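hey so u asked for the seq, here:
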Amino acid sequence: MNSISWIKQTILLLALLPILYNCSGPMSYIHPTADLTYIKAVAIVPLKNLTQERAAEGKVMNVVAAEMLRRGVFDVVEFGEVDKVMREEGIKETEGVISKSVAERAGKRLNIQAFIVGAVEEYSMSQAGSGSYPEVAASLKLIDANSYKILWESTHSVKGATIQDQLFGIGKKSRSDLCRKLVEEMFDTLFGGR
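ran it, structure tokens below
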């Protein structure tokens, strides 16, 4: 094999690696009979933080709320009001879940039709050779406030550097940028690419 042929093959491989490396999207479920047209407003239950990053749940919650409002699909109840009602209903801020009876009562009090619950699974900087790159992962569910039926669920993770980026140290993204990408791709599975 001559050196020019080897260089061409190497360039081709490096060009294809990002495509092969980043080809997976969110894993999602939509209830087969889900009709979301009745949902006018949702409350985001404080997400569970499964990471070592302090306050990662708040960062992701802000992005979730902003993305929902940006799409104009549902109104989002202000976080402080949701926290107040959850505390009064006996839900601890760090639980990231809600029971059926609490969902019914809190849903009526907040005048909502559904809740977003979930967890931040990764919000970190990972080492790759001599460099580092961000990783963000989360899982979210849209739960009907009355029936407690899971209408939608999505789990996703994204990395801030492709193999090409890691090899050449270029194109790194911040955790904030990744979080926006993660949430947008998750909601694309529910609402399409709006």
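DSSP finds six helices and seven strands in the chain. The first helix runs from residue 3 to 21.
lmk if thats what u needed
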